[in-house]
């Protein structure tokens, strides 16, 4: 299975390489390079994954919820599935690349947004106690 399955724009390693090369020419991007971390590659890779995640959400998760007719326990399951997609989106927006970290509220700066929440902490209180 291709890691680019479902993508319509960033459909191959070559397309991601082209995007990374374009981004690497920008000082606003390269100022985040540190050691092994190359921000242009982090952004290009994240954009490819974001494209895939957003297309999956729009094609599958949102229609499942919007079609209606789901029993309440299935609504909760779909909402948790969507939450997992959003967690992965946050990782690819804020955690992997550094460029967009300004989007984090100040009180969250310096925390690992993806790893700092356990599965139980993501659930509403009534779900954590069941």
Give an overview in words.
- There is one protein chain.
- It contains six helices and no strands.
- The chain has helices spanning 13-24, 27-30, 39-66, 72-95, 119-122, 125-128.
- Helix 1 (13-24) crosses helix 3 and helix 3 packs antiparallel against helix 4 (72-95).
- 58% of the residues lie in helices and 0% in strands.
- The longest helix has 28 residues, at 39-66.
- The chain is an all-alpha fold and 130 residues long.
- The chain has one domain.
TL;DR of this structure?
The protein has six helices and no strands. The protein has 130 residues and is mainly alpha-helical. It has one domain (13-122).
Give keywords.
130 residues; mainly alpha; 58% helix; disordered C terminus
Gyration radius (Cα, Å) is: 17 Å
Number of helices: 6
Helical content (DSSP H or I, runs of 4+): 55-70%
Termini separation (Å)?
A: 37 Å
| Mass-distribution shape | flat
Enumerate the spans where pLDDT stays under 50 for 5 or more consecutive residues. 115-130
Number of discrete domains: 1
Based on secondary structure, the structural category is mainly alpha
Helix and strand run: HHHHHH
* Mean pLDDT score: 85
Percent of residues in beta strands: under 5%
Biggest sheet, open or closed, and with what strands and sense?
none
Number of strands: 0
